[in-house]
Amino acid sequence: MTLPPLTRRSVLGGVAGLAATLGLDRTALADASTKRLTLVAAPGRSLIAGSSYPETPVWCFSGQVPGPEIRVRQGERVHVRVENRLPEATTVHWHGLRIPNAMDGVPHLTQKPIEPGDTFEYEFACRDAGTFWYHPHQRSHEQVERGLAGAFIVEEASPMSVDRELTWVLDDWRLMRDASISSDFGNMHDAGHDGRIGNTVTINGQVRDAIPVRAGERIRLRLINAANARIFGLVFKDHAPQIVALDGQPVEPHAPDGGRIVLGPAMRADIVLDMAGRPGARFQVVDTFYRGLENRLVDLAYSEEPSLLPSKTSEPVPRLPANPLPEPDLARARRHKIVLGGGMMGMMRSAVMDGRTVDMRTLMQNGLLWAINGVAAKGHVHEPLLTLERNSSCVLELVNDTAWPHPIHLHGHSFRVVSRNGAPTRHREWLDTVLLHRGERAEIAFVADNPGDWMFHCHILEHQAAGMMGVIRVS
User: Fold this and answer.
1) What ranges do the domains of the chain cover?
2) Angle at CA of residue 38, ends 124 and 56, nearest 5°
3) Lowest CB count within 10 Å: 182, 269, 322, 432, which one?
4) Which residues does residue 219 pair with via DSSP β-bridges, in sequence order?
5) Could you tell me how far CA 125 lies from the centroid of its own chain?
6) Sheet containing 268-274: which strands, arranged edge to edge?
7) Spelled out in words, what is the top-level CATH class assigned to the domain 8-156?
8) How is domain 334-474 classified at the CATH fold level?
9) Span 123-150, pLDDT tens digits
10) Local structure of 258: helix, strand or coil
């Protein structure tokens, strides 16, 4: 049982000195000639809640929460040696990157788990520029929650002209009064409802009071939702962010619907934020997604310096160059329907488990509460939901027949969201994780050009662990 949330007064008392830190430190991990990186997964400690609290015992990559930001150029190859010093097996999944199946980091499906004391070497080319991230796929509902995640940035050949670029890895934590992480991982209440929602929200692994900015500057802000289950709905008070990329893929620059940037777990957004306030002013960034639980995330704190001149803020926000994604042929595409079922307040009474139909009681005894097309998945290896011919165009109609939202992620591919609830989407955005609200339908389209068995699952990690997971085979 968790204790009451940390109070903002006690947290802020220990974090005033953090205001000078703007974004993740870009640790120089790579040899410039070989792009060889090493990540060490191990227990550690991190000052998550501020100096008024003890350090939090965590699991982390190379001693950092979040892990070191990996930064390469589009088209470059990377070679990542992962050393496992955890007390259990792990893997690393490179979320959103279109890479060979053997490098995808899914235990037993694409590789053997990395046992304690062992290493695994990942190597792949970075075809797409954009904002991506990395995390385990082995018992991810616990390993990610303990701190194992990091940003993976692929820079464009000609980066956007801005005054500064920041990365915010957004996360939440379920902390006890002593700032330790609550050990109730994967409990059935979380699994059957909206997942593990924490009581402490962090930017780049720390509770923040303010982010220093200067009047007149233009910032490119890369947002990554690394939380297990929390959906963020960010409002930048009295500012007008322009979205320029979603899930790493460029989109026509536009203001978010209703002025709010909504990111389900695993989703990303690149925004351009023009600092139009006056010197010395402060403006809140507020998370408004959960009604009645709105909270201030951080302040944009303007320095007393005069407005930056010349200023880019009067210039139009440019569109980023497109990535080399194959365009699906909608007229000839094979169409498939995928129905998400289960969860508390749902209508699912039975599902297929291990090849046989069982009742809800048996499912729950096996820790299963969710299903895709009537199949509740145990583990990562099972018969594919779909088998697609390589290089064929495909449209999936996704139906959320549950009482809860689901961010649905497809490995190894990006897809266009072509419709929602029967209406064409305005921006026809490319994503790798699409958020479906209660009762919502969406059509996604892609070319199945990457051969292998690819995970397809809800990225609320407790839902994934409790059955909402499948395999799409490209052969």
Assistant:
1) 8-156, 165-314, 334-474
2) 120
3) 322
4) 164, 273
5) 21
6) 200-203, 164-173, 218-225, 268-274, 242-246, 249-254
7) mainly beta
8) Immunoglobulin-like (2.60.40)
9) 999 999 999 999 999 999 999 999 999 9
10) helix
- Is there a shared CATH topology between the 165-314 domain and the 334-474 domain? yes
Q: How many residues are present in the chain?
A: 475
Beta bridge partners of residue 218, listed in sequence order: 274
pLDDT in tens, 195-252: 999 999 999 999 999 999 999 999 999 999 999 999 999 999 999 999 999 999 999 9
pLDDT score for 31? 41
Tokens representing 401?
């027949």
Tokens 């709105």, residue?
A: 294
Compute CA distances 232 → 119, 286, 290, 377, whole Å: 35, 9, 8, 27
H or E element in which residue 361 lies: helix 360-365
Q: Residue 82, by phi and psi: left (phi above 0), alpha (psi -120 to 50) or beta?
A: beta
Distance of alpha carbon 50 from alpha carbon 13, whole angstroms? 8
Tens of pLDDT along 457-474?
999 999 999 999 999 999
Residue 158, C-beta contacts closer than 8 angstroms, at least 6 positions apart = 321
| Contact assessment for residue 175 and residue 182, using Cβ atoms and an 8 Å cutoff | yes
Q: Which residues have C-beta within 8 Å of that of residue 49, sequence separation ≥ 6?
A: 6, 11, 14, 56, 175, 179, 200, 207
| Protein fold of 165-314 | Immunoglobulin-like (2.60.40)
Query: Tokens 């947290």 map to which residue?
Result: 11
What is the DSSP track for 16-84?
GGGGG--S------S-TTT-EEEEEEEEEEE--S-TTSPPEEEEEETTBSSEEEEEEETT-EEEEEEEE
